[in-house]
Amino acid sequence: MQAQIKRRGKAGIFSRGWRSAIAFAILLASCSAFRDQDTPSGIREDGKDFSIENAIALESKGDFLAALKNYQRLTNISLDPELAQEAELGCVRCLAKMGKYSSALAMLQPMQENPRSNSECRSFALAGEILIRMGRYADAESMLEISLSSPEMKNFEDAHWIPAACANLGTAYMKNNKFAQSQTLYFRAYEIFEKNGDRKSAEECRMIVETIEKYQKDKLKIKDPK
Question: Fewer beta carbons below 10 Å: N end or C end of the chain?
Answer without folding.
Answer: C
